[in-house]
Amino acid sequence: MNILELSEQEIGRRQSLQELRNMGIDPYPAAEFPVNATSEDIKANFKDDEKREVTIAGRLMTKRIMGKASFAELQDGKGRIQLYISRDDLCPGEDKDLYNKVFKKLMDIGDIVGVKGYAFRTQMGEISVHVEELTLLSKSLKPLPIVKYKDGVAYDKFDDPEMRARQRYVDLVVNDGVKETFIKRATVLRTMRDFFDKHGYTEVETPILQNIPGGASARPFITHFNALDTDMYMRIATELYLKRLIVGGFDGVYEIGKNFRNEGMDKFHNPEFTCMELYVPYKDYNWMMKFTEKLLETICVAVNGTDKVEYQGKTISYKAPFKRIPILDAIKEKTGYDLNGLSEEEIRDIALNKLKIETVDETAGKGKLIDEIFGEYCEGTFIQPTFIIDYPVEMSPLTKMHRSKPGLTERFELMVNGKELANAYSELNDPIDQEQRFIDQMKLADKGDDEAMVIDHDFLRALQYGMPPTSGIGIGIDRLVMLVTGKENIQEVMPFPQLKPEAKMPQSTVKEWAELGVEENWVYVLRKAGFNLISDIKDQKAQGLQQKLGDINKKYKLGYEKPSVEEIQKWIDGAKA
Question: Whole-model pTM?
Answer without folding.
Answer: 0.89
